[in-house]
From TrEMBL:
UniProt GO MF annotations: DNA binding
PROSITE patterns: HTH_MYB, MYB_LIKE
Protein name: Uncharacterized protein
Skewed-composition ranges (Basic residues): 126-135
Ranges of Low complexity composition bias in the record: 136-145
Record domain Myb-like: where: 13-65, 74-117
Main location: nucleus
Assigned keywords, A-Z: DNA-binding, Nucleus, Repeat, Transcription, Transcription regulation
Cellular component annotations (GO), alphabetically ordered: nucleus
Organism this protein belongs to: Urochloa decumbens
Places the protein is found: Nucleus
DNA sequence: AAAAGATGCAACCGCTCCCCG
DNA sequence: CCGGGGAGCGGTTGCATCTTT
C-alpha cells in the first residue's frame, strides 16, 4: 500500500485520520458493515470505532472493501464499451454508469474515463508521423517527444469525430506497412466477436436501430453513438477511440460538422481516431505501434449534421 | 543503472440531495 | 415549510509504479 501522504491529511486534525487505510482499519470497517450493513457511516466515528469520517468509511467500503468488486483487473472491452455508451447518454454520472457494471465503482469508472480521455487527448495531439526514427515506443505510452501536455480543456472531452476510419487501406509508409497493416487489420475482426452484451439491458441509443436489449448483440456493437460529455451527449457522436469497421458499417456515421478541432491541425486530427479494445479483440489504440497510425486516414467527411434525438426521458434504471 | 516523465488509482474535498424532526 | 444532518456524487489531488531515455 502506499505510504501516507505528506500533503494531505497531515495531522492538523488529530481527531480524524486521513490517508491510506491500514488493514486493521479495514477490519474494523468490515466488521461494522457485517453488523450494521453498509450504512450508519457516521456512527463509526461517533462510536469511536475508527478515527475516520463517515464519508471516508463509506468511500473505503464502496471502493475497496465491497466483496463483489473486481479489484485489480482492467476494464474489459465490453465494460469499456458500456462505459462509453452510457457516458454518452448519462454524461458524467459515474455512479449511475457504475450500476451497469458489476464489480465496478463510480470511482473506477471515473478513473477509467479520465485515463481514457487523457490518452485520447494525447493521441489527438500527437503528430504521429513525426515519431522518432528507429524507435518503437508503444503507441500512447509515455514520453513522446512530440507530445503536448494534455490540457484540462473540457472541450477535449467531446470528440467530434464520427467517421469510421480506414485502416489498412493506405499504401502506407516506408516502415514495413505490412506489419502495421497486418497488426491493425488482423485484430479488428475480433471487435465484432465481442462477447454477448451485458446481462443488464442498456438504454443504448442507436442510430436507426434499437440496441440495448440483451439479445441484440449486433456485430455493430462498436458503432456507438456517443461522444458527448459533461452531461450533454454529442448528437450522433462516435468515440474516436472506438474502432468501427467501415465494411461492417457501410453507412457513414453521423458526424459533427467538421471544423477546427480544439485548434489542432490536421495531423492531429488524422492521428487519433480509432481504438481497439483489448481483451476481446486484443488490441487497443495505444497498443498499436506508431507505425500503425500511418495508415489512419480521414476520409472525406460528409457534411451532414445529424439531428439525433435526445435520450428518452425514461431511463431504465433497473439492473 | 539511473533519472525523468507518464500513468494509474486511492483518497480527499466540496457540493447537492434526501430524509427526518 | 424549514432547517439540520447524513449520505451520495463528481471533481481533483498527489503518490506509487511503470516506462522510456
Amino acid at each position: 500500500m502506499k505510504r501516507p501522504r505528506g500533503g494531505r491529511g497531515g495531522g492538523e486534525q488529530p481527531a480524524v485520520r486521513k490517508g491510506p487505510w491500514a488493514p486493521e482499519e479495514d477490519e474494523v470497517l468490515m466488521r461494522h458493515v457485517q453488523e450494521h450493513g453498509p450504512r450508519e457511516w457516521s456512527s463509526i466515528r461517533s462510536k469511536g470505532l475508527l478515527p475516520r469520517t463517515g464519508k471516508s468509511c463509506r468511500l473505503r467500503w464502496v471502493n475497496k472493501l465491497r466483496p463483489d468488486l473486481k479489484t485489480g483487473c482492467k476494464f474489459s472491452a465490453e465494460e469499456e464499451r458500456v462505459v462509453i455508451d452510457l457516458q454518452a447518454q448519462f454524461g458524467n454520472k459515474w455512479a449511475k454508469i457504475a450500476t451497469y457494471l458489476h464489480g465496478r465503482t463510480d470511482n473506477d469508472v471515473k478513473n477509467f474515463w479520465s485515463t481514457r480521455q487523457k490518452r485520447l487527448a494525447r493521441l489527438l495531439r500527437a503528430p504521429m508521423p513525426r515519431r522518432r526514427p528507429g524507435k518503437h515506443s508503444s503507441g500512447a505510452s509515455s514520453s513522446h517527444a512530440y507530445e503536448l501536455p494534455a490540457p484540462k480543456n473540457p472541450c477535449l472531452e467531446t470528440i467530434p469525430f464520427q467517421e469510421p476510419i480506414t485502416i489498412g487501406e493506405s499504401s502506407g509508409s516506408s516502415k514495413d506497412p505490412n506489419t502495421a497493416n497486418h497488426r491493425a487489420v488482423a485484430h479488428f475482426p475480433g471487435a465484432y466477436g465481442l462477447p454477448p452484451p451485458p446481462p443488464t439491458p442498456l438504454p443504448i441509443m442507436h442510430a436507426g436501430a434499437e440496441r440495448g436489449s440483451s439479445s441484440a448483440a449486433p456485430a455493430t456493437a462498436l458503432l456507438l453513438p456517443y461522444g458527448g460529455d459533461a452531461g450533454y451527449p454529442v448528437p450522433g457522436g462516435v468515440d474516436p477511440l472506438v474502432f468501427v469497421d467501415p465494411a461492417a458499417s457501410p453507412e457513414p456515421l453521423e458526424v459533427v460538422p467538421p471544423g477546427p478541432f480544439f485548434g489542432l491541425d490536421d495531423d492531429y486530427v488524422h492521428a487519433g481516431r480509432a481504438t481497439m479494445h483489448r481483451d476481446v479483440c486484443g488490441v487497443r489504440f495505444d497498443d498499436l505501434p506508431p507505425e500503425a497510425f500511418d495508415f489512419f486516414e480521414l476520409p472525406n467527411l460528409p457534411a451532414w449534421p445529424p439531428p439525433f434525438p435526445p435520450p428518452p426521458p425514461s431511463q431504465p434504471d433497473q439492473l
